[in-house]
Amino acid sequence: MSTIMDKIRKEQCKKNIPAFSIGDTVKVHTKIVEGETERIQLFSGVVIARKGSGITENITVRRVSYGQGVERIFPLNSPRVEKIELERQGKVRRSKLYYLRDKIGKASRVKDLRKS
Fold this sequence. Notes:
The chain is mainly beta.
């Protein structure tokens, strides 16, 4: 029975998700429905957490907007998530970056990953 469920879950997973990790800056394109119209809204920020696996995988993206920290949780395989673009890669040593919530200004930045 579990193999049937695994097969269904694998079919439901999106194929176009780029390889990114914690500390990377991403742009998430989400579909917003306003009455009859549908538009795409961008949310750009640092990935501070990645939870779950397969169909239930979520990412938490954080940015500072007008001096206020804003976090959004996106299910990666949701039909509302149009696409995810990788802006830049960050160098971190943690799997969850919740400590960034307490940092202000330049201290809340993540170092760039240098490609050799």
